[in-house]
Design a protein that fits this description.
- The chain has one domain: Immunoglobulin-like (Sandwich), CATH 2.60.40.
- Helix content is about 5%, strand content about 50%.
- The chain contains one helix and nine strands, in the order E-E-E-E-E-H-E-E-E-E.
């Protein structure tokens, strides 16, 4: 399966939801942009992805970026969901830490490209 999800946190306090079967491996690629649609330079930032199921955070990982992807705002992560996790609705939050002196953390307006496979 391959989907483009809007992970911007909306009034429901979550990004777009996705139905997944039990025990999937998620290959995630984030394209992080500012609220005005410009690409965010990740050379001074950390991208964290959180996966939620049934109102519970079940995974949190730090995404990595290649040397070429840093300036393009591209980061990626692989997440294996436990086989014990029930099938159902999942949603994703993509958070950006700017690593400045203030070390601000805020939700990134981001698109997430998703491929899922069974383990």
């Amino acid at each position: 399966m391959y989907r483009r999800l809007n992970c911007a946190i909306d009034n429901s306090k979550r990004g777009e939801t996705l139905e997944l079967p039990r025990g999937q491996v998620l290959l995630l690629e984030m394209h992080v942009t500012n609220r005005d649609g410009t690409v965010y330079d990740l050379s001074t930032a950390t991208v964290t992805v959180r996966v939620f199921h049934n109102q519970t955070k079940i995974k949190e990982v730090t995404a990595t970026s290649s040397a070429a992807g840093v300036r393009l705002g591209v980061a990626s992560a692989t997440i294996s969901l436990a086989r014990s996790v029930e099938p159902g609705s999942y949603w994703f939050e993509v958070w950006l830490t700017d690593n400045s002196v203030a070390n601000r953390i805020y939700p990134a307006t981001s698109l997430l490209l998703l491929t899922t496979t069974a383990p």
